[in-house]
Every structure is written in C-alpha cells, then in structure tokens.
Write a structure and sequence with these properties.
This protein is mainly alpha-helical. Helices cover 41% and strands 6% of the residues. Strand 3 and strand 4 form a beta hairpin. Bound molecules: glutathione (GSH). InterPro entries: Glutathione-S-Trfase_C-like, Glutathione-S-Trfase_C_sf, Glutathione_S-Trfase, Glutathione_S-Trfase_N, GST_Omega-like_C, GST_Omega/GSH, Thioredoxin-like_sf. It comes from Lipomyces tetrasporus.
Length: 360
C-alpha cells in the first residue's frame, strides 16, 4: 500500500516535534528564502481570483460574520428554541460548518433542526445546491428550493455585500437568517435546546463552567494560528507572508502536542470532551489529506510528526461516531483542490496520503 514519507525538512527540524527549536524554524525560513529569492517570484504577477481572498499585501483576512442573533431560552427571546423551526445549512468540506454538524449530532438535535448540505464545489456564484444523485452527500434546499446559498443571504438582506458563507442557521418561521458564525451556533446548540432534546442529551455540555476560562484561552490562539492559520498560510500571495504563518502554525501544533502529552487524556482537557476538541478536530482531520499539500502546510504531518495529536485525532474519529459520521473526505478533498483554481489550476485532487486517516 502507498504510504507517505517523512517530510524533506524533517532532518532539520524533527527529532521529536516537542523539541522543535526556534533555531530550526529560522533555518527553515532562511533556506526557503534563499531558494526563492530568484525568478520564481515572478509567477506571482499573474493575478488570479485568489486575490479575492488575499489583500494586496498578500494577507488573507477573514471577514467577521454578518448575522449574530441568538436562539435563546430566555423568556421573550426573539428566536426561542422550537422543534422544526430552524434549518442548518452546511458544507461537509468546510471546517467551520463541520463544527456545527458535530454538535448538532452530539446534542441529539437531528430531529429538531433539519440539515442541508451544499455541493462541495464552490464556484463563481458561491456554494450551490445539488441533488444527492448529482453529487452524493449533497442535498437540495427544502426551505426555499434555492439554487445557490447566496439566494438566502439576499432574501435576508437584498443589499448584502459580504461573502456567502456556511454555516447558515435559518429561521423558517420569520424567514430570516439567525446566525452565520459557527462558534456561536455551537454555543446555542450546546444548551438552548435542552428543554426539547431527549433526556440523555439534557445537560450534556461541551462548555462546562469550570473550564470556560481555559477553553476560551485555548480557542483564541488555536483559532488565530491553527483553524485560521492554515488559511492564512494557504491563501497568502507573498512568500514572506506564507512563511510567517506556516511557522506560527507549526509552533502552535507543537504547543498542542505538549498540551496533549501532559493531559491525562484522551482530550485536551483530560477526560472531558469540550468544544476546544471539536473546534480543533475539524482542522486536524483535514490537515494531512488537504492542508499539507494544498495549503503548503508541509513542515510536518500529523501522522508522522505529532504522535499525541495523531492519537487524539484517531480517538475522536474512530471512537465517537458523531465525528466519523460528519467527516466526508470526498467533499473535503474535492472542495479545496477543485475550487481553488488559483492554487491548483488543473483541479487535480491528489490521491494520497493513503489512507485519509490511519486506523486506530
Ligand atoms: N466565521 C465563519 C467562517 C465561515 C467560512 O468562512 N466558511 C467558508 C467555507 S470554509 C465559506 O463559506 N466560504 C465561502 C466564501 O467565502 O465565498 C464561521 O466560523 O462560521
């Protein structure tokens, strides 16, 4: 069977990931600068669509989500929890939307909040809806029979001038977009529907009071340098911008490796599965199959260089069905490699590494 190999730079950097030193990082940066100081840079003059993602300084900046209302159990809330009232739109490919799909399942909300899944292909018109026959794993929009996700944004606000992102949490009763920020949607799912879910899900929380400060603290740097870090490296259109983000990303992976080594396990905070694990999972599960090659996050691989993260990842995927059942490698791999033509002009999806995730 095909297996991936140790990264070329491993001899410079990895005897053990936790021992990665600043000096080694700078050696990597120095060598790559020397390699790239010549004519290779001129290819950057070709300005493709990717510059819609990155600014002229070469930096990708994620725009804040536009709709931030809350479903709440508080009396008189504008959006109270109700069975069948809300509809969740996701992409199996998108790490942010993936968080919401996991929590929806873990909290037993499948019979309470319906789900639509867009096609993995993101084109000029944004996310589109396909039938499962056209694209396995996708669904139509049963609420409005839209062709594209953008139609929902314009229905909400005809003047919408932001991007058309998933996830989208839609209120069928008032025909409005409640929220399109995954970190907030998972908080709503975590507790606001507890009066409606089966008894076994009531009180199950991924944001326990005793750990909130620690979770918030970890989320903050993981969001910036890992979840969003892979995009900042991958969408960068200047060499030095890419290098700075990819090095920061791998420093954070080292930090996570240390946290897991010190944790009593199997999670980031010992034996308590929290939203910090869920938010990290959706990036790490995509790391080896996509981010290593497509976003050039290739200083190392999870499976080869991060034994603790690798163990943690396989535990979530193989032991907790809600993680595996919401992980669609076909959508993930095809979306990135066939939608970002500025990065991958021929849209060839690499076969490896095989397997997508290693066995337990
Ligand atoms: N802050 C948002 C980010 C969502 C996001 O960026 N989604 C991407 C997919 S991974 C998207 O829909 N992009 C489409 C576009 O920007 O056109 C969240 O966490 O919910």
């Amino acid at each position: 069977m095909l297996r991936s190999h140790r990264p070329v730079l491993s001899s410079l950097y990895y005897s053990s990931p936790s021992r990665g030193s600043q000096i080694a990082y700078y050696r990597i940066v120095l060598i790559s600068r020397q390699l790239l100081s010549g004519s290779a840079m001129s290819s950057q003059q070709k300005q493709g669509e990717i510059l819609k993602w990155a600014s002229t300084d070469g930096e990708f900046r994620r725009r804040p989500s536009s709709y931030r209302s809350f479903i709440s159990r508080e009396p008189g809330a504008q959006y109270p929890p109700e069975k069948g009232r809300y509809h969740l739109y996701i992409s199996w490919a998108c790490p942010w939307a993936h968080r919401t799909a996991i929590v929806r399942k873990l909290k037993g909300l499948e019979g309470i909040i319906d789900l639509s899944v867009v096609d993995w292909y993101l084109g000029e018109m944004g996310w589109k809806f396909s039938t499962p026959e056209e694209t396995p794993g996708s669904t139509i929009d049963p609420v409005h029979n839209s062709s594209y996700l953008r139609e929902l944004y314009f229905r909400m606000n005809p003047g919408h001038d932001g991007r058309f992102t998933v996830p989208v949490l839609w209120d069928k009763k008032t025909d409005t977009l409640v929220n399109n920020e995954s970190s907030e949607i998972i908080r709503m799912f975590n507790e606001e529907f507890d009066d409606l879910v089966d008894d076994k899900f009531k009180g199950v929380t991924f944001y326990p009071k005793s750990l909130r400060k620690d979770i918030d603290e970890l989320n903050e740097w993981v969001y910036d340098t890992v979840n969003n870090g892979v995009y900042k490296a991958g969408f960068a259109t200047k060499q030095e911008v890419y290098e700075s983000h990819v090095v920061t990303l791998f420093k954070s992976l080292d930090r996570l490796e240390d946290i897991l080594a010190k944790s009593t396990g199997p999670y980031l905070f010992g034996d308590v599965l929290t939203e910090a694990d869920i938010r990290l999972y959706t990036t790490i599960i995509r790391f080896d199959p996509v981010y290593v090659q497509h976003f050039k996050c290739n200083i190392g691989m999870i499976r080869q260089n991060y034994p603790q993260l690798h163990k943690w990842l396989r535990h979530l995927y193989w032991e907790i069905p809600e993680f595996k059942d919401t992980t669609n490698f076909e959508h993930i791999k095809k979306h990135y490699t066939k939608s970002h033509r500025q990065i991958n002009p021929f849209g060839i999806t690499p076969v490896g590494p095989l397997p997508d995730i290693e066995p337990k």
